Amino acid sequence: MSQQYVHQHTSPPGGGPDGEQAAVRRLRQEVDGAVHVPLEAAYDTERQAPYAADLDPRPVAVVMAAGTADLVSALAVAREHDLPFAVQSSGHGTKADSTGGILVKTGHLSGVLVDPERRLARAGAGAVWGQVIAAADPLGLAPLAGTHGTVGVAGYTLGGGISWLSRPHGFAADSLVRAEVITADGRVLTASADSHPDLFWALRGGGGNFGVVTSLEFRLHPVAELFAGAVFFPAERAADLLARYRDWVGSAPDALSTALLLTRLPEDGQTPAALVGTRVAGVQVMHDGPAEEARRLLAPLLRAGGRPVLDTLRTGTFGGIEMGGIGPAHVNLLDTLPDPVIDILVETAARPDSPVSSVQIRHWGGAMSRPGPDAGPVGHRTARFSAILDARLPEVEEVMREHTAGRAFLNFLADPGNAVAAYTPDDYRKLREVKRAYDPDNVFRVNYNIPPA
After folding, report:
1. 158 and 66 in one domain?
2. Both 95 and 163 in a single domain?
3. Residues 316, 317, 322, 323: is their CA dihedral positive or negative?
4. What angle do CA 109, 112, 375 make, to 5 degrees?
5. Strand 102-105 vs strand 188-192: parallel, antiparallel, or unpaired?
6. Same domain, 78 and 142
7. CA 195 distance to own-chain centroid
8. pTM of the predicted model, to two decimals?
């Protein structure tokens, strides 16, 4: 399928009320999916970004795309009427406001196909990781999926995508092999290593800046059985555990992925009732290998925690183990864990009045830090740790500023106007050049925006 749209104004720039009404009429004539507008019951439900409580978007219309043709038509209408254009899948990564524009939702483009012989999956723009895992897991295969099955495949992958299997296999973007993309001029292109390679490079970490991705094809990885879960210790052991963790990770093989979690034990079916709400320091683990090997590798670290209060480590498939995660309100990338960082994180997590209820310090490295020669512009691959907090505190940010050099990871970025922090200077320059080639008017700007050069 290939369509092209030439930009020309048919209404006053900015639309205005008359232009907005004309845009809605066009959408209802040309789009097969539902079109919701203000004062309709479904509008207030569909306009919301479900994981961005601080946003209250009020787009001119919400288009429930039924297929690629609807996306092409909605984009053409937005351009003709000079209305902002926004795309939303699951809504997990939504940070930019679509007020005054056309918001297109891709939830109906959710098909998933798995090719077990080639170890590939193809997912529509509205698919979520739970669907891919359900299709791949019985075949002994796993995607480089996000923490929760409700996370959208497209936004997560285009932003880089860090998985519990990223240390052995790299970022999710590194496993992308092909994407169908609608560019700003309305063309439907296939981007791959052999077709529009500059666009393909930019998509693998550059977010939604270069077009509307309608489907993705990516590699799956053979993972028959994993040893995973967590071991929790009294919160008083947090400082000792973190200090030991800082040194211990240097000996961890790529097959072993870990994180330290400072939190309260949840009511999740695994936690005994008597321990629910107990403040703990936990070691989260996913090992692509035998349980005995994992226990041996972990022993020096776990000794620093003393006697555990709960051990949920077990053998299972990727789809059968729930690792959990925390909402990334404040994220920093670090090369080490200096004492001031350990002190502020432990103190913040322990304070009874702290707005921070959970802190996760995760080990990066492995295959993430060894990109191939044609790898995309994913984040800052040299980072060794990420520190994720579920709330922001000025005192934490002040300490972190001294040790992070302002680096960020696109999937975790809180400020949609600060995309530059997610890239190296050279990659950011190249991304702006690709943006100029495929979207010189910055049509795709309601996102973590990268302006054209």
Report:
1. no
2. no
3. positive
4. 95
5. unpaired
6. no
7. 25
8. 0.92
Tens of pLDDT, residue by residue over 188-237, are 999 999 999 999 999 999 999 999 999 999 999 999 889 999 999 999 99
Report how far residue 403's alpha carbon sits from residue 341's, in angstroms, rounded to the nearest whole number: 8
Whether 275 and 309 have beta carbons less than 8 Å apart is answered as yes
Whether residues 116 and 78 share a domain: the answer is: no
Say how many Å lie between the first and final Cα of the chain, rounded. 29
Question: Rg of the Cα trace of the chain?
Answer: 23
Same domain as 301, residue 173 = no
Q: How far apart are CA 160 and CA 180, in angstroms?
A: 17
Which tokens belong to 243? 């200090």
Let me know whether 234 and 373 are in one domain: yes
Q: What is the count of structural domains for the chain? A: 3
Final residue in a domain of this structure, among 87, 105, 123: 105
In the block, residue with structure tokens 């700007």? 445
Structure tokens belonging to residue 148:
């929760």
Domain assignment present for 359: yes
Give per-residue pLDDT as tens, 259-294.
999 999 988 877 898 999 999 999 999 999 999 999
Compute, in degrees rounded to 10, the torsion defined by CA atoms 382, 384, 389, 393: -70
